[in-house]
């Protein structure tokens, strides 16, 4: 695109649009854009030596320009938007993976980055702003994609990051407490997500989790709605068997009854997989083909990511809400007769109300809990720990201030047929503390701690060095 919003990326002959943002004002970078070769400036004030167009709202201008110039091209893509509190990343990534397995080239846009089969790059937001989205969608077209599946966050919708786009499918996974620091109430949170279901193409379809108590916000009369769930729905699911390495379930719908066996574990991951089952069915794939594609899948990094160590299991998961934590713990309990240990923390400067709830869930369902740092940002960590333990009626926990030490302690507790859950950060590569981004990845640290445990002499040498 020869229209740019970042003055650093301007090439000779480009047009620079000066956007006003929360932290930066593009008008401050007009001079740099001109020095870098901008031939035209779109702004709300000022006069410059190159062609200058004054508009009332530069963002509105940009949105209209993108739509008028590029929407006909990107409308050729089958666009699938997935929203919900938990499961967006896994649901989207599984569908991206299965479509590619089945020979239908598909892109993925979301929390863990931009993928077309393999990862192309990381993204700043789960749902990028509209300029970046258009650029990514155009790149998907140039790479030969037929489909693009993307996570659509409530904040992305509230901030109009997907305006002008229309979707072939809109998927609702679930709604539970999160982001109330932004939305304030669950109703406002639900209504923000509801906007996705008003953005369907005329032939588009809404895919809804029948079992979720907030489903009525998304079953809009004007849409063609298709539901799935364990308690009812057009695609009715029954769990048949599960262990630490696979799950067997069956699906009954008007088109078929089909048995599935997958390497995914946890009922919540079957919910995540069902969005793919429904959409692939609607895309005219037969049930046996879908079942074969579902048999061996790779989860996104940091989503139920497992290390088998002896007969014990270490699981790293992004679960950072009360509901997600409850579901992971319930799944873990179904997989073992041994003990369950949890390492987790709570993010600073985010929904404080959920902290004590998460601690109570962890202590109730686990044998022992190790509370530690997550991303404190600029909040006092002592305040976070106070919120986590305030009113807690359990005593099966301790606080370990260093997250690596907390993981090491959790691993040391493993005995026979036990499970250690390391929750909250998942795929993330940093701990954010004030203005510092400290390299840290839960899975890498767990492997390192296991290696130290297996070779204590080498570990002591490394530590002394």
Automatic annotation (TrEMBL):
Subcellular location: Cytoplasm
Top-rank lineage group of the source organism: Bacteria
Root EC class: ligase
Residues bound to ATP: 84-90
Transmembrane regions listed in the UniProt entry: none
Pathway noted in the entry: Cell wall biogenesis; peptidoglycan biosynthesis
Main localization category: cytoplasm
Entry GO MF terms: ATP binding; magnesium ion binding; tetrahydrofolylpolyglutamate synthase activity
Ranges where the Mur ligase C-terminal domain occurs: 302-426
GO biological process: cell division; cell wall organization; peptidoglycan biosynthetic process; regulation of cell shape
Chain positions recorded as UDP-N-acetyl-alpha-D-muramoyl-L-alanyl-D-glutamate binding sites: 7, 125-127, 153, 161
Protein name: UDP-N-acetylmuramyl-tripeptide synthetase
GN (gene name): murE
């Amino acid at each position: 695109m020869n229209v740019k919003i970042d003055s650093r990326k301007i090439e000779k002959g480009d047009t620079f649009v000066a956007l006003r943002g929360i932290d930066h004002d593009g008008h401050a970078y007009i001079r740099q854009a001109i020095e870098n070769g901008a031939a035209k400036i779109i702004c709300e004030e000022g006069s410059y030596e190159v062609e200058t167009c004054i508009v009332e709202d530069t963002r509105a201008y940009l949105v209209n320009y993108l739509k008028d110039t590029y929407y006909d091209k990107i409308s050729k893509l089958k666009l699938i938007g997935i929203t919900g509190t938990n499961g967006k990343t896994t649901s989207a990534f599984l569908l991206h993976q299965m479509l590619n397995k089945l020979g239908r080239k598909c892109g993925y846009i979301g929390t863990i980055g931009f993928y077309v089969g393999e990862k192309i790059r990381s993204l700043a937001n789960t749902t990028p702003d509209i300029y970046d989205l258009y650029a990514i969608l155009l790149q998907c077209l140039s790479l030969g994609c037929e489909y693009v599946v993307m996570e659509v966050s409530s904040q992305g919708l509230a901030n109009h990051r997907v305006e002008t786009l229309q979707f072939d499918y809109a998927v609702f996974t679930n709604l539970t407490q999160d982001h109330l620091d932004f939305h304030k109430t669950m109703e406002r949170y639900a209504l923000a997500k509801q906007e996705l279901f008003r953005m369907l193409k005329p032939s588009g379809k809404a895919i809804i989790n029948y079992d979720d108590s907030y489903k009525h916000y998304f079953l809009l009369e004007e849409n063609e709605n298709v539901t799935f769930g364990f308690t009812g729905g057009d695609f009715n699911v029954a769990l048949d068997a599960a262990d630490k390495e696979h799950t067997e379930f069956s699906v009954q719908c008007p088109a078929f009854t089909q048995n599935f066996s997958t390497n995914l574990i946890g009922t919540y991951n079957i919910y995540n997989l069902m969005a793919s089952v429904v959409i692939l069915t609607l895309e005219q794939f037969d049930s046996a083909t879908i079942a074969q594609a579902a048999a061996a899948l790779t989860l996104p990094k940091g989503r139920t990511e497992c290390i088998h160590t002896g007969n014990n299991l270490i699981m790293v998961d992004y679960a950072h809400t009360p509901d997600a934590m409850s579901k992971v713990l319930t799944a873990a309990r179904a997989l073992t007769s041994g003990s369950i240990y949890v390492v987790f923390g709570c993010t600073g400067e985010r929904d404080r109300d959920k902290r004590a709830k998460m601690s109570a869930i962890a202590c109730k369902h686990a044998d022992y809990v190790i509370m530690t740092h997550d991303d404190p940002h600029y909040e006092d960590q002592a305040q976070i720990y106070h919120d986590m333990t305030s009113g807690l009626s359990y005593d099966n926990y301790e606080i370990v201030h260093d997250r690596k030490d907390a993981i090491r302690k959790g691993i040391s507790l493993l005995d026979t047929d036990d499970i250690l859950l390391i929750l909250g950060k998942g795929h993330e590569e940093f701990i954010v503390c004030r203005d510092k981004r400290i390299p840290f990845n839960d899975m890498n640290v767990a492997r390192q701690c296991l290696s130290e445990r297996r070779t204590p002499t080498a570990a002591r040498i490394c530590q002394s060095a």
